[in-house]
Design goal:
CATH architecture: Alpha-Beta Horseshoe
Radius of gyration: 20 Å
Order of helices and strands: HHHHEEEEEEEEEEEEEEEEE
CATH topology: Leucine-rich repeat, LRR (right-handed beta-alpha superhelix)
Number of domains: 1
Shape: elongated
CATH superfamily: Ribonuclease Inhibitor
Strand order of the largest sheet: 1-2-3-4-6-8-10-12-14-16
Helix content: 10-25%
Strand content: 15-25%
């Protein structure tokens, strides 16, 4: 097996073996960094960066917490390490400044990088809110802000990111409702909002995410019943809703999720009803709920 095959196998093992989204996110990110290093040529190509784009990037890096006198050297280093990438027009397409010990905030200037496809600021100490200008990044496919100290609400402008496939906002201090506009992200495959302060009900519009394979809204303050529209999400493999304040009965439509491998509804004391039968491979946890198992044969 070649290096690419080994990396793909390791990625699959991580996906299957680790249920905790925060840990899984970190492991996959480290694997991404390793894959990037292995695929990089010894002689790195010179990156052409438009002056206007450089000006914007400098403002962003300063806002994130880098000292002004260190910015030029820092940006050069990130380009050399392939953490900042550009296209043939000199426009920035990738910013991966995860695990960089930043403690500032995300500035509104981020919305000016309209060619951006990946924004990864995971595992810093960023505070403040997610600027609504994030909705201007129409080419964005991955938005990773996991493991920071971001607060405020999730801006409804996120629904404008029609190309988005991965959205990770977990391990922050985000509050308010999950915006129904999130249902507009038709190609989204991963939605991680774990460990925040989100409240209100799960919007029924979430059922419009037909491509979604992983959904984690765990460890929040969500209330109300599970929307039956979840049953429309046929590609779902993982659902993590544990440690919320969900109530009502399990909708029968949940039984239509034939691809489901993990279902964690534990620590929702007012959630009840009978759980549908899933495949024998599906790992279910409904501890500390009022849910009854229809056959009692689910593996833990």
């Amino acid at each position: 097996m070649d290096a690419r095959g080994i990396q793909a196998r390791v990625r699959r093992i991580i996906e299957i073996s680790f249920e905790e989204p925060a840990l899984k996110e970190r492991l996959i990110h480290r694997l991404d960094l390793l894959e990037r290093e292995l695929s990089e040529p010894i002689e790195r190509r010179k990156v052409h960066l438009k002056k206007s784009q450089l000006v914007i990037l400098k403002k962003i890096v300063v806002a994130l917490g880098k000292k002004s006198e260190e910015v030029d050297k820092y940006i050069t280093q990130q380009i050399n390490e392939n953490r900042v990438k550009t296209n043939e027009n000199g426009e920035i397409t990738v910013i991966d400044l995860s695990m960089s010990q930043f403690s500032g905030s995300i500035p509104q200037e981020i919305g000016e990088l309209t060619a951006l496809t990946v924004l990864n600021l995971n595992s810093n100490q960023l505070s403040g809110s997610i600027p609504p200008e994030i909705g201007q990044l129409k080419a964005l496919t991955e938005l990773r802000l996991f493991d920071n100290e971001l607060s405020g609400s999730i801006p409804p402008e996120i629904g404008q990111l029609k190309a988005l496939t991965k959205l990770g906002l977990g391990n922050n201090k985000l509050s308010g409702y999950i915006p129904p506009e999130i249902g507009q992200l038709k190609v989204l495959t991963e939605l991680w909002l774990t460990r925040n302060l989100l409240s209100g009900s799960i919007p029924p519009e979430i059922g419009q995410l037909k491509a979604l394979t992983g959904l984690s809204l765990a460890v929040n303050q969500l209330s109300g019943s599970l929307p039956p529209e979840i049953g429309q999400m046929k590609a779902l493999e993982k659902i993590y809703l544990f440690k919320n304040k969900l109530s009502g009965s399990i909708p029968s439509e949940l039984g239509e999720l034939r691809s489901l491998l993990f279902l964690r509804l534990s620590d929702n004391e007012e959630l009840g009803g009978e759980l549908p039968v899933f495949s024998p491979e599906c790992r279910v946890d409904v501890s500390d709920t009022r849910i009854s198992l229809s056959d009692g044969l689910y593996p833990k």
